[in-house]
Amino acid sequence: MLLTVTTTHRPATDLGYLLVKHPGKVHAFDMPTGTAYVMYPEATADRCTAALLLDVDPQRLRARADTFELGQYVNDRPYAASSLLASALAKVFRTALRGASKDRPELAAEAIPLEIRVPVLRGGAELVTRLFGPLGWTVTATPIPLEAELGGDSRYVDLTLTGTLRLAAALNHLYVLLPVLDDGKHYWVAPDEIEKLLRSGAGWLADHPAKVLIARRYLAHRKSLATTALELLDADQPVTEEEAELPVARKAPLAGQRRDAVLAALAEVGATRVLDLGCGPGALLAALLEDPRFTEIVGADVSARALEQAARRLRLERLPQRQRDRIRLIQTALTYHDERLGGYDAAVLMEVIEHVDLPRLPALEAGVFGRARPGAVVVTTPNVEYNVHYPGLTGMRHSDHRFEWTRAQFAAWAAGVAQRYGYSVTIRGVGDPDQTTGAPTQLALFTRTAAATGPATASPHPAATAREATAEMTNETSTEVTA
């Protein structure tokens, strides 16, 4: 089976640097089902084409057939693009898929003119267009006719994609969508395939109108895996059987609704100097930076790796100095006193408290509400009552959650914090509410009203009561459904 990638970017032979394959050589790679070759049929300054040819060994394929239910002696695997070709692409062009290039880093980040051809691809022209069209490609899918005596068209197309995209984006589109069109992976689909799908679909899959179909087919119609993948993409509505085969227009992702609710709360209190506590890889920081009303932004997290990811996401090194001066990242633990966190208009704990062990929650409260003491605090956390709407979920929404609270438990905790530290509090839901279970996320907006009184000692901390109730509701085994 064959796939070609062509560019007319000048000099076109720079394609060799992006693919890390010299145009003057033939490169061979051993694969579990055969041998993959990379060669260049043309390589000039004006036009360069790289060809990936997968030569399938029928004996190796037959050896794997008993395991992966491809036991027919006559099949289309040796010539029709499928998950076999996607696996070869992942191995042969691994660096290019990541968007990395040691020799041409600026070109790897640039959209260049590309033409991709797959001469034999399973899938009708309509489906191929529906999958590739929304990604910025001009799609030409020509049906391959059957023999003259049979008449009509086969189920295969000759596909040509043209567009101006980053090479990494183009290769990731192919890596995901070739198996989707094939709809029959040659290997067992395990839960780690979810991570592959989300990694390769980053930046485009969440907004694709056919993402439900893509997730179902990529994950071999294993409903529990597809549901988990869609929830991790923040498709917060339960997935129905009908949605698996239709390009459904879905609601705004819950993560986006959550960020908008936090931004609205910050605007409500007139905050301009803001702490994002437990900022993680920087999703909220990016939204804060885009809004000019926030003149000073601090992202704080205990994880150095998370802060590195946030810096990359924000492209701090490339920001204009005026923008760069508005934001800084600091490493700190929220359960300890840190003088750098004092004196801000507002602090945000977005999906943070549920990652803290309940016995440590009072220390976090003291650090944030007692010592840092911002003018306002915005806290969001999952509503455990809503979890019944997530098919296949048997525990908490994320394996790192220490607890998840009902609406009553969250309200009791928030009221106690407000009383102890001199704040008033209002609570609201985020996301589309259910009449019985409420909204998927709950938000508390604390506003400072008086001097700190210090934590009460006469009665047990509400976290202790919540811990007992949480233990009754929580299973040992949990399934991740949200980031």
Descriptive notes:
The chain is of the alpha/beta class. Helices cover about 35% and strands about 20% of the residues. The chain is built from 17 helices and 14 strands. The protein has helices at about 15-20, 60-70, 85-90, 95, 105-110, 125-130, 165-180, 190-200, 210-220, 225-230, 255-270, 285-290, 305-315, 320-325, 360-370, 405-420, 460-475; strands spanning about 1-5, 25-30, 35-45, 50-55, 110-120, 140-145, 155-165, 275, 295-300, 325-330, 345-350, 375-380, 425-430, 440-450. The strands form two sheets. A seven-stranded antiparallel β-sheet has the order 2-3-4-1-5-7-6. A seven-stranded mixed β-sheet has the order 10-9-8-11-12-14-13, with helices on both faces. Helix 12 links the parallel strand 8 and strand 9. Helix 8 packs across helix 10 and helix 9 packs across helix 10. The chain is elongated. The model is unreliable at about 65-75, about 235-250, about 450-460 and about 460-483 (pLDDT under 50).
| Approximate helicity band | 25-40%
How many helices? The count is: 17
Spans of at least 5 consecutive residues whose pLDDT stays below 50 are: 63-73, 235-251, 452-460, 462-483
Gyration radius (Cα, Å) is: 26 Å
Shape: elongated
* Straight-line N-to-C gap: 37 Å
Which percent range describes the beta-strand content? 15-25%
- Overall pLDDT: 84
Number of strands: 14
Largest sheet geometry: 7 strands, antiparallel
**Arrangement of strands in the largest sheet:** 2-3-4-1-5-7-6
